[in-house]
Amino acid sequence: MTTKTDLKSFFETGDKPTQGQFYEWMDSYWHKDESPQIKINSTAEITNQTKATNGYTQNGKNVLIDNGSAAINYKINLTSDTEENFLITGIKLGTAAITFTVGSGSPVLTKVDNTLAVNGTKGSRFMISRVGNTNEFLIFINNL
Known about the structure:
Structural class: mainly beta
Number of strands: 10
Strand content: 25-35%
Number of helices: 2
């Protein structure tokens, strides 16, 4: 993501920003029609790259996961396109467990609450956090 300082430098007096620079500026902000919340309906494995049906990514969003009555794995991958400072909060809408697992790229999953399973009732919450470009993902779980 482009920093505010870099974005401002594209639009200094006398500058003629390129189309790409304008797109960088537009992509750095949420539009009022975009929701900070997305929903993923899945009874199969999902990953941190799984997008909502509207094409939105999970990073920076509150993610509602409806896995119905099927226990699923949420695989955390560490690839070249994994966002730095990845952060999501989430709510389980299904009745079965969601278990966080190690995917490709050797990420390190750190259990903050001594579990990697969201196995409480509907409404149980979780948070996934990656600071910078480290390979560590902190997993916080609040089972209700």
